[in-house]
Amino acid sequence: MVHALREAWRVLRPGGLLVDLHPGVRHRRLSLVRGGQAQPVAAMRETFADQRAADRAITRFRQGGPGAAKPPAQFLGYTRLECSRVMDGLDDLREWLADFMTRDDSLPPHDWLVEQVEQVLRQSGKARIVVTGPLDLRVLRKGD
Amino acid sequence: MTIRMDPEQNEVRALRGVADWRGQRVLEIGCGDGRLTLRLARLGATVEAIDPDPASLRLARRQLPARFAKAVRYRLGEAEKLRYPDESFDRVVFAWSLC
Fold first, then answer.
1. What is the SS3 assignment for A75?
2. Which superfamily is assigned to B18-79+87-94 in CATH?
3. How far apart are the C-alpha atoms of B80 and A9, rounded to whole Å?
4. Which residues of B touch A86 (CB under 8 A)?
5. What is the CA radius of gyration of chain A?
6. Which candidate from A4, A84, A135 shows the least CB-CB separation from B98?
């Protein structure tokens, strides 16, 4: 991560902005939505190992010490926003989880979640599946 | 697969809130299938978008609307070894790729 940040800093012009956008450390929530009404089902069980490492790397990069930005970085801001994924059915959920696991090998299996959603859908009928979680956005400005 | 990501457009609203993207030369690191790339292009940026996964890039190129053909270029690349000169971008975006 430090190499990636250094490389990004190298290609950025003085006064330019580095924007980092990655999922925040809070478990995503899954709901079923029908007719505008959301029914909470469960929270996921992510480990957030990568997110915490990225947060630490950014902090070191902007605060000085080994691995710090040269020229120095000015921290312009942090925003947390909610981001949702809307899926039409269980196949979409399975595919999204499978894709998630290829990108984040620390994610434990979530078969239990699919089974839980399947059970609720069986009981209460068709619904959209909505997974919502935080996204953290940080902005650093490269010094002149 | 039918997955709609961020239908509320919170992400693009936040990006618009932190910077002016019009006319800016942007390097997007970890563009994946180009979802965020297109959002940056719609904000007026010229985007060089890189990703280490050829399959994702193929999908991104297929999904690139003709109207953004001049504003967006997808390339195979890794964050740790950027093949660009020093100080060549106004903005660098890590798109879910730092972690």
1. strand
2. Vaccinia Virus protein VP39 (3.40.50.150)
3. 11
4. 3-4, 7
5. 19
6. A4
Nearest chain A residue to B77 by CA distance is A4
E strand or H helix that includes residue A123? helix A111-124
- Candidate from A10, A23, A57 with C-beta closest to B86: A10
**Total tally of structural domains belonging to chain A:** 1
- Do A7 and B79 count as a contact with CB atoms less than 8 A apart? yes
Q: What is the pLDDT along chain A (144 residues), one digit of tens a residue?
A: 888 999 999 999 999 999 999 999 999 999 999 988 999 999 999 999 889 999 999 998 988 777 788 888 999 999 999 999 999 999 999 999 998 888 788 888 999 999 999 999 999 889 999 999 999 999 999 988
What would the DSSP string read from start to end of B37-62? HHHHHHTT-EEEEEES-HHHHHHHHH
- Per-domain boundaries in chain B: 18-79+87-94
Distance CA(A33)–CA(B89), nearest Å, equals 42
